[in-house]
Amino acid sequence: MSPAGPGVRSRLRFLPRVGARNLGLLIALAVWLVFLRFTAPFYFNFDNYRVIGLQIAFIGIGALGTSLLMIGGNIDLSIGSMMAVCATAAALVARDIGVIPAVVAGIAVGGAIGLFNGLMVWRFKISPLIITLGMLAVLRGIAILMTSGYAVTGVPDQFKILGGSRIFGLQSPVWFLFLGFIVVGTYLHRTTTGRHIYALGSSRDAAQRVGINIRKMTTGLFLVNGLIIGLVGLLAASRLGTANPTFGVGFELEVITAVILGGVAFSGGEGSLGGVLIALVLIGNIRNGIIAVGLDSAWAQVANGALLVVAVAIDQVSQEQREKYRRLLAMRERTPQEVASTKPASPSKQD
Questions:
Q1: CATH (domain of 275)
Q2: What is the percent of the chain where pLDDT is above 70?
Q3: Is residue 269 part of a domain?
Q4: In the prediction, which pLDDT does 343 show?
Q5: pLDDT for 98-131, tens place per residue?
Q6: What is the pTM of this model?
Q7: Residue 257 structural domain
Q8: How many structural domains compose the chain?
Q9: Three-state SS for 149?
Q10: Residue 340 counted as domain residue
């Protein structure tokens, strides 16, 4: 057996594959920008990119929690409705109590919902797809009941500062996006807990055998995702100065598209936030560019759906290639004695 074990070589194999996925996204982005250069020359200005940054900021912040969950082998389809509940809770508390309690309420409600989802997934051993799909409907109904179906009005002006202010010309949600990627990226790629998240998504049984607390890790990931979505809802309500129970409709599909397109494996265990960030920039430019060239805005929805289908297809092909490589690597690692022992014994000759 060679000095480098299968785990080391598997990681080395993964590095160029991630680079290739990111390179493909960068090429697609470059081609699209060249197309816009000739069809919509006015597209390239700071004000336009400030708009794009704001458009992808909320999706990008939400993608942080979803990336952690999917790398850990889980998913939460209720984040759109969760965002609506958190935004509504924050706006109601801001109107009736105060701004500081509203900030706490928006994030805390998201954390509570995320923790509940995590405990449900762990306790009942049911696919998170099913549980969070049910929660998507439950939370949307709660958001409507909280406001009787109407938007929250009468929010104080101080509440609008958090999501509506600008720093060096960029809106505050964009700065939250940058800060979030730095913090979560460092946590995921530079800490022991981050490596445990990858291990959990790669093989739950193997992770448990090496001493990782599966229950704590699973519920913790859902909790963190809930806190992040609580922040998204808070920022959305603060920026608009209101909250509406229709907030976040389709939000989960936009987030999942960015995450999978960015190279996070749907089956878990692999992915990087760098790829997710590139995917966000590509999606933002496609959505905004479609409008800039004069096409109907409905084509942006078509593009989002197409990107999701393409991303899932690429992820499936990549998964098949990884499985083939693992089988080939396992065969190469077998000693001649092990190979000989698996061959059927030849029939003995009659004297």
A1: 1.10.3470
A2: 85
A3: yes
A4: 53
A5: 999 999 999 999 999 999 999 998 888 788 899 9
A6: 0.83
A7: 56-316
A8: 1
A9: coil
A10: no
